[in-house]
Amino acid sequence: RTGFQAMASGVVAALDQVFLSAAPLLAPASLRALSHASSSVRSALLPVSDRAARTAKLVRDLQALPFEYDFGLHPIGFENLQLLWKSLSPLQPLRRRELVGRDAGFVPTERDPWCFCSGKDAQEVAAAAQLALDHARFENKPSFLLGAVLRRTDGQTLSGAVTTSSVGIEWVDGPAADPVQLSFQVTVDPDGSFNIDLEVGSGAWSPWAETWALRDGTLDAKIAVAVPLAGGAALLFRDFRGRHGPEDRAADCEGRRLPELAAALASSDGLRAAVCIGGLRWGKDRPPWCPRELQKIAFGG
């Protein structure tokens, strides 16, 4: 009997590993049926069943995000799903900004959906998001994670500097006269230099509209941009301005991969990028109304 118990214990241990891999793929009814097989099997299934429930919840949560998946989420495993959720859940996609009406202004228009074609594709974007988050934190303030599709503007030549189309986000839940927009644009030179244009606007295109921008010193921020590129780790470049100390505008590898980014922008329909903003400071009186997302990352609210 002792030998039989030892053998049964070994079988259950092996089954535990099988259940751990198979449980996420089984229906709840099948899991319940297996749990009635024996007390040993039931005890092995308890943590597996819990893990399967948590896996199913992560899959539902990821599917509720503004992304599309052309692959099954379950098979990539619980740990990978956790990593995806950690990086993708705070990411807010930016929209293309278009000129609306004659003598009107630019506003974010249609959503630019992100579709991940494989688990590897999603994991590369998640890793880029985490990289941007790690490099835009400032003191104890939270940061604001955004997703942008970088595309060269229409009419550009394939040589020389590449400027991306403006993308942005708009908040209209404040006073009707003071909608707030945030816009982002980047210019990359083949020689390895770059410029980030970040702007906050209040009042849309009304006569009392105001802007705060990096380019004229009315806005300061820490910005980190991470772009997954084919055949290598994500390219990181960052822009730390003004009151954060000595100006720091740098790319990884001392900018050696920025020409690679410029070439990729010139030859593609768009590159996904994680854009993280932290340590926001107003260089003049702050907007009359400010959305919660910007209040959280701004000094002085």
Write up this protein.
The protein is of the alpha+beta class and 301 residues long. Helices cover 33% and strands 28% of the residues. The protein contains seven helices and 15 strands. The strands form three sheets. Strands 3, 4, 7, 8, 9, 10 and 11 form a seven-stranded antiparallel beta sheet that branches.
Q: Could you give a short description of this structure?
A:
It contains seven helices and 15 strands. With 301 residues, it is an alpha+beta fold.
Summarize the helices and strands and which ones pair or pack.
Elements lengths: L1 H21 L5 H8 L3 H25 L3 E3 L8 H11 L3 E2 L1 E6 L4 E4 L5 E3 L2 H18 L7 E7 L11 E2 L3 E5 L8 E9 L5 E9 L7 E4 L5 E9 L7 E6 L7 E4 L6 H10 L3 E12 L9 H6 L4
Helix pairs in contact: 1-3, 3-4, 4-5
